[in-house]
């Protein structure tokens, strides 16, 4: 099929690759710079060059101050809609600026200055957004840790980022339970050899915690005192190439990778994306239903919409059960959102509860124009259901924590291209996406291979890993010279559409959350009774994938396997966190291996998923696969 369309996409994308500097210099006009770039792209800097070298800017200024000065002071910037606490609160751009200036002054009083790290371990509350922007305002580097991670994960991040200050809260709220943050925070600080100078704790009325004397400070009291004293921190000029934040993401080991985001490239890319990709105009209401602990939340709950001058909805709730499968439609109609960005898993959950879309028809969705999906492959049945029910375009788009914004999508603002269900459509400007074989040679259309991005990547993508330049090169730039390795496999079709079919490493996607099975195996292996283990992602109707652990017990262990399996499930929850959704541990006599000792994870996965499989030629003992099949019976 030859795609014929009236979209400006082809011209825009071709221009971005033919003359990237002219393209991004043009896009950069949408940003208020303190000093312009000396070089739009400097190939001599960093691992593959840096964007907007020498430019001076402030991200918070671009997200708040300039809108207040430019006529949006009274426009709502942030709507916090929380069915979990039964509250809705709204903040105008002027009110947000006041909060952020005040909090930034509080931070400065703690001695936090440009270049210092600050960790946020926070639920989805407006104060978390204020804290991110306050960091940006004074040039501090924030690192948000998702609230569903356990103390040990937080400890690893504290150890690596070495924060001067930690922002946290007394609790998060999940359906039917209060998640107490303070014990997790205390344990994490205890486990880490690095200690923050201070913690600022937001007391939520749903649960008050005790503050640790000498270390913890009450957020509200600090805010009140700073307001009474008329304190307000100005914006600190930073280089476009200075870090704005670190976001840790799963690597192939238990040690997460600290993805670095800079200020200048991030501003330019996100601003470009808000209209050209998402079709949203300044002043419109936009909703990204993610968590600030993930990259999607960083880019599209906080920075993208605010830099653009839109109104952003922050939703503390679930797609179902808070209170029902109509929750998303209630939010869209109540706040007149023009677009929603969420993960396919949320739609699978809604579809299961409300297959005929009865809830959808209860609400006025007349303002709603587009649904965007990302975080995992958007399976065609879910997309087709969403299209049929909502009667708006449903757009799958593909990106990673590392890139910070979309690699391949369907640009609504430039004019949509025809949709092919199962494909996130085409590369965005600045991205030359190729599919290559092991020798880095491009493969023919329709042929599966490794998906890579030709260097340099566009503005907004990671320049390096936090204080690990070498690990960055080895993990991303070495295997395919001249390219960034996405670790996703797939193909391009004859129309240039990208098809992303799965990871080439041990990363799995559980309800849109990125997790490392290698990291989970490290936890399983730490159990005293476990001799060997393998964790793999198996199909799940709602979450896409869930982890499943196979255990071989040490010789001489006489305890009941069921008891050990229960301990293992609890151990993963304790060490990694509930978000891993690790509920299935299965004891087996042996693990299937090749003659060279490699565990045949792919074959086990096929058996567990009920797919057809062939006996691997290199298998050491074919009988082990029958044993795996037997062990799985009645467990899935
Ligand atoms: N703090 C503490 N615990 C958390 C948490 C947080 N911020 N977020 C999730 N959890 C817990 C949940 O309570 C759940 O615990 P449980 O095992 O006691 O039930 C566990 O982690 C798994 O959470 P989740 O994967 O969210 O599953 P769920 O059953 O609660 O909800 C969905 C399923 C589909 C509704 C949910 O996964 C969802 O909304 N996903 C959207 C995906 C998303 O936002 N992705 C981000 C990238 S776009
Ligand atoms: P994260 O870094 O958490 O955003 O996860 C990135 C990974 O999620 C990618 O490398 C893909 O494996 C997967 N992913 C994200 N979006 C999509 C998509 N639209 N289609 C297929 N896979 C996706």
TrEMBL record:
Keywords from the UniProt entry: Ligase
InterPro entries: ACAS_N, AMP-bd_C, AMP-bd_C_sf, AMP-binding_CS, AMP-dep_synth/lig_dom, ANL_N_sf
EC number per UniProt: 6.2.1.17
Ribosomal protein is among the record's keywords: no
UniProt superkingdom: Bacteria
Family label: Belongs to the ATP-dependent AMP-binding enzyme family.
Name of the featured protein: Propionate--CoA ligase
Species the sequence originates in: Bradyrhizobium retamae
Lineage, top ranks: Bacteria, Pseudomonadati, Pseudomonadota, Alphaproteobacteria, Hyphomicrobiales
């Amino acid at each position: 099929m030859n795609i014929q369309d009236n979209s400006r996409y082809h011209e825009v994308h071709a221009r971005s690759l033919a003359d990237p500097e002219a393209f991004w210099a043009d896009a950069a006009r949408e940003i208020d710079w303190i000093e312009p770039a000396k070089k739009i792209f400097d190939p001599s800097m960093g691992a593959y060059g840096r964007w907007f070298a020498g430019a001076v800017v402030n991200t918070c200024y671009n997200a708040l101050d300039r809108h207040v000065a430019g006529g949006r002071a009274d426009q709502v910037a942030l709507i916090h809609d929380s069915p979990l606490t039964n509250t809705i609160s709204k903040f105008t751009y002027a009110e947000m600026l006041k909060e952020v200036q005040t909090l930034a002054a509080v931070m400065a009083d703690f001695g936090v200055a440009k270049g210092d790290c600050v960790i946020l371990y926070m639920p989805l509350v407006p104060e978390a957004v204020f804290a991110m922007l306050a960091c940006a305002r004074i040039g501090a580097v924030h690192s948000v840790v998702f609230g569903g991670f356990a103390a040990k994960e937080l400890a690893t991040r504290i150890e690596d980022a070495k924060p001067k200050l930690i922002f946290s809260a007394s609790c998060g709220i999940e359906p039917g339970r209060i998640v107490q943050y303070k014990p997790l925070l205390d344990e994490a600080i205890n486990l880490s050899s690095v200690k923050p100078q201070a913690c600022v704790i937001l007391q939520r009325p749903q649960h008050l915690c005790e503050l640790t004397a000498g270390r913890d400070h009450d957020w509200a009291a600090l805010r009140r005192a700073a307001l009474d004293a008329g304190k307000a921190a100005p914006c600190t000029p930073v280089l476009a190439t200075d870090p704005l934040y670190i976001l840790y993401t799963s690597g192939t080991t238990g040690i997460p990778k600290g993805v670095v985001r800079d200020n200048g490239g991030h501003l330019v890319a996100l601003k470009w994306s808000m209209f050209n990709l998402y079709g949203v105009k300044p002043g419109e209401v936009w909703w990204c239903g993610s968590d600030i602990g993930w990259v999607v939340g960083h880019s599209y709950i906080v920075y993208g919409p605010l830099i653009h001058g839109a109104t952003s909805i922050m939703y503390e709730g679930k797609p179902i059960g808070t209170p029902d499968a109509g929750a998303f439609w209630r939010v869209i109609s109540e706040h007149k959102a023009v677009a929603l960005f969420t993960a396919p898993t949320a739609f699978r959950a809604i579809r299961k509860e409300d297959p005929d879309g009865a809830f959808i028809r209860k609400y006025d969705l007349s303002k709603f124009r587009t649904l965007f999906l990302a975080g995992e492959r958007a399976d065609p049945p879910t997309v087709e259901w969403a299209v049929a029910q909502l009667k708006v375009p449903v757009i799958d788009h593909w990106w990673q924590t590392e890139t910070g914004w979309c690699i391949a999508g369907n640009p609504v603002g430039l004019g949509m291209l025809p949709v092919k269900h199962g494909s996130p459509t085409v590369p965005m400007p600045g991205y030359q996406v190729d599919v290559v074989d092991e020798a880095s040679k491009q493969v023919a259309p329709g042929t599966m291979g490794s998906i890579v991005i030709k260097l340099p990547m566009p503005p907004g993508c990671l320049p390096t890993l936090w204080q690990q330049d070498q690990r960055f090169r080895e993990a991303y730039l070495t295997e395919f010279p001249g390219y960034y390795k996405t670790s996703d496999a797939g193909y391009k079709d004859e129309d240039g559409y990208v098809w992303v079919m799965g990871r080439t490493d041990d990363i799995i996607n559980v309800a849109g959350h990125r997790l490392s099975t290698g990291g989970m195996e490290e936890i399983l292996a730490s159990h005293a009774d476990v001799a060997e283990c393998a964790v793999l992602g198996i199909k799940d109707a709602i979450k896409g994938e869930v982890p499943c652990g196979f255990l071989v017990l040490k010789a001489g262990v006489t305890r009941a396997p069921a008891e050990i399996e229960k301990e293992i499930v609890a151990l993963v929850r304790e060490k990694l966190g509930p978000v891993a959704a690790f509920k299935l541990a299965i004891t087996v006599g042996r693990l299937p291996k090749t003659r060279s000792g490699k565990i045949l994870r792919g074959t086990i996965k096929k058996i567990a998923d009920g797919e057809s499989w062939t006996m691997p030629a290199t298998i050491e003992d074919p009988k082990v696969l029958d044993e795996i099949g037997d062990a799985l019976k009645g467990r899935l």
